[in-house]
Every structure is written in structure tokens, then in C-alpha cells.
Amino acid sequence: MTKTRSLQKFFTPRLLQALGLLILLALAMLLLHLPAVHLVDNKVLDLQFSLSRAYFPQHVDIDPVVVGLDEAFLDEVDEPLSLNHIHLANFLRAMNQAGVKVVGMDLSLPEKRFDTLVSTRKDAQDFHKTLLAGLLETIQTTPVVVAKVWDMKHAHYRDIQLDYAGILGMQGEQFQAVASAEFCRDSDQRIRRFPGADCQPDRIARGLATEIAAAAGMRREWSGLINYRLGAPFKYVPLQEVLKLAQQGKVTELQQRFGGKVVLLGATMDAVDLVDLPVSLAGWLPANDPNPGVLAHAQLLRSLLNQRLLQQASTASLFALSALFALFWLGRSIRIKLIVFLMASLGLLAASGIAMQYDVWLPPTAIFLTGLLALAGSAAWQAWQHYVDKQRLSKAFSGRVSPAVMQEIVEGRIDQTSQSRRLPVCVLFSDIRGFTTLCEHAQAEDVVSLLNRYFAVMSKIVHDHGGTIDKFIGDGLMAFFGAPQKLDNPSQNAFNASREMLAALSILNQELQAEGKAVLQIGIGLHAGDAVIGQVGSAERHEYTAIGDTVNTAARIEGLCKDVGYPVVCSATVVARLAEADALIALGDKNLKGRSAIAVYGWHPVQA
User: In this protein, which residues make up the domain named Guanylate cyclase (predicted)?
Assistant: First the structure.
């Protein structure tokens, strides 16, 4: 017991609050790095991208142009895709004539020369030499960046043919002419992050879009998230359309459409190189369809060329906001804290949306969960404290008031401010016959011990039948049935309790006789009617009691027991509500002190 009290003295409420706050801060830091939280944040981010594109469209100053290899192009040409050297060469020459700023190719150039393969067309050309000439001619005035693809089977990037690599490498060190086409994918396989070194198989931050932007004069060091808020959905220009314009010599139109722009060539076919993006970028496809991979590069290019990569708020600032939400652990009013928490949560979402307008991503999930844990923890702790207080209160007052009254007090339905009510009840008075004479020949301690023994038995019976003990008056007992616990028939409950009290007294008397002590006899009076039930007294000292003529009449009826010779005497009002009314004996009208005569009935247990 001493150890428990020492611990209670050490763990003061303030110390427990501080410990709870520290635990919440530790949980906040954990939540900031939890994969499941990141998954939810990603869904919130995607929703913000969609809402922003729908209601706050972001126009861009520099937009790449996508040229697509689609099914229609493959249908028009005779060669398979791997032998489109001539068409690629013609495309490069067309872009050179158009005066584009940079040509990016989300395609991997051939690994072999294909020297022995010659076209069977009238204008037969050597595949390898034709593409080689196209590359050499283009790089003189127009930077060219092509993709390299990671070979998972052999764990390295696929090499392009040495001649092509040599020509592309002649463009200088401002950018890397052959760059990785690999992207970062989150746990749900969507592409959201800038493909830095941590995303590249060789851990070198040289992605295709990064090098195209570098060739256009932008810096190469980037980090953050691809900004899917920028620009409208892409509409690609079919490759065959570009080749036709070049073949027809429409250089002016090529210059008008592509001059000074960054052009990205890639596959736009329905079943080739498809990726999952947070928003739909293909203006020619249904909204929920996967997008061609070239559009992921194009959107990243948008972000880089306009210098608007999305930057995530720092861990320190997120932790600071989480710590602010952890303060919902403090304070006592759960209702007020709940209202403030809802307002703060709405404010957090609004702040995240506003930050997005400034190209800052404020992930809200960890912050919200910290506040929710703080609020739930505070509510749980207060509920536990309330439960402990109720238990302590019940233990402290269990011997001073009846269980039903104790329950009402604990539930807060009875206090010194509660209004009294007029309720129908049945009042029971009992008294030990000849107790004064008994006290004259016994020690006071023995008398108290006997009374405690007697009342322990009788109190339990009253409570078992739904009664409320009002008070003990010396050797007497007053109880009422019907409040605060509502009963269907208070008179029946009171009469049943009276019968059981007499039965229990018989057992108690046998024990007293065995101990060589005098036996007890009691009288019980019952009367039913309305009484005023409630707290009586002052704020410093009050009790839950019944007041009214019904109480006084029951006390007077109990006083008749000795004169009429019955241990239980009931008024006609009580008998009218009893199932055993025929078992009671009518005793006629009896005069009661302080009031007119009243009809009473007597009952005596059947002798075995």
C-alpha cells in the first residue's frame, strides 16, 4: 500500500500529461516515416492534382511538343519498328530544318549496324549509314538526347551501336546525350517523384528529361515531385504527319509548329510502354486509361523547363505542425477540443491546398493522425479517470446510500442542484419490538454489533427487491420502493421484501438462539401513495429522502403492529395492488395519530 501511494505521489497529473505528450511526439515522428501514411498522402496528393487541374488550371510559358509513333504510322511503313532508321533520320532532318531547340527521343537506338540489310524500295538506302548521317547532320545545330533502357536480365543498360554513341557524344559535356528513361515508382506503382540518383539502377542522376532540359540551357540538379498541375492534357503530333510535311518541303509550316521548342519523340500506341500517372495526360484517351510513358517524360519536362517542380515541406516543418496537433492531448473539455480539432483539420487541408498553389506539397496525413491520436488518447484517459473516480466514489459511499441512489449519483443524475419530484411510491417502516428493554441488559458494543448484523440482512433484502433505504432510526428502518429505480408495482415489491425479511429474521433468530442470545421480533408497516423524492438539506450536508403524508402514514401503520398482533400491517391502498390480497386479514379502520382512521390489513407468515 505504501509503495502504491509513493508511485501515485510521484506520477502526478502534470507528469503524466508531460509523458503522454512526449509519447505523442515520438509517434508523430514515426508517422512521418511510416509507409502506410505515405500511401495515404499519395492519394491525397493525387486528389489535389485532379482538383487543381479542374478548378485552378496552371498555364505554362514553355511546353514541350510530343511527336508520337502510333499504330497508323506502323501501318503506313513497310519496315518493322526496329528498322525505322530511315524514318528516324528524316525526322531528325525535319526537326533541324524547323529550328527546334532540342530533340529528345524516348526511344533506344539500335544496338547493331544492320550493314547487310538494304531496303528493297526503289530509293534503296543503307539503314545504318542513313541514320548515322541524319544524326551527324542534326547535331551540328540541334542538340539530340536519346533514351537508354535498363536490361533487367543482364543488370545493365542496353548499349547502342558505337557509331551512334560516338556521334551523340560529340555534343559536349553540357548534357549527357544518352540518358536513362527509368522512373521512380511509388508503392502503388504510380510515377510522382523526380527520377534522381536513388531511382536510377546505376545510381547516377542522369534521366532523359533532366538531360533534355540541360540541353535546353537549364541546370541539371533537381529534386522534388513532378508537378502534374501544370499545363493541359497533351495532344501529340503523329510522326507520319511530320515526315509528310518534310517530304513536301513545307519548311515554313514546320518552323511555325516546332521552331524554338523542345520536341520529344516517343511511342503513343495503345499497348506499348504504358504507365500509371496521378492524372490523365493523354488528351486522346479516356480519363481512366493508362498513359504512354512518353507523357511522363513530357510532364517532367514541363516541370523542369518552367522551373516548377513540386517541393515537399521539410520534415522539420511537418514535425512542428504535428507537435502543434499533439497539443490536443492537453485540456479537459473533449467537446471543445473536438470542435477545435475539426476546425484545425479543415484548416490543415486548406493550408495544404494553398501551399499547392505555391508549388509546395504539405502532406497532411501524419499531422492529422497525430491530432486524432492526441484527441482520442485524451478522451480515453479522461474516460479512465472518470471510471476510477466513479469506482472510488462508489466505494466511498456504497455503505452510506442505497445502490440505486449511488448509481444515480455516479451517473450525475442526482446532486444538490437536482429538483425534487412527486412520485408514486410504497413506503416501508420496520422496527424491532422490545429493543429498549434489550438494550438495558446488554453492553453498548453488543447492541451495536447486533444491530449491524440485523441491518446487514434486512438491507440486502430491501435492495434485492428494488427498494431504497432512506435511513436507519435507532433500531428502525425506513425504505421506499419506486424511486429512483422505477418499478411496475412498488407495493408488490415492498410486500415481497417484507415477507422475505420475516423469513430471514427466522433464520437469524435460530443463530441467536444457538449463541444463547435473545431472539428478535419486528413489525413492518406499508403504505402507498405519492411522495416528494429528492435531495433535502444544505449544500454542505444533504440526503436523498422521501417526504409527505405517505411517509407519515406508513410510520403510523408500523406502530399498529404490536396492538393488532400481526408482524406486517398494510393500508388498503397497498392491498389493492397485491396479487396475494386474499391472504391478508382485514382489521377494520384504525385510528392513526395525527390523522383520521384508515382501513388496514394484517399478514402473518404461515407456520410450518
Answer: 426-558
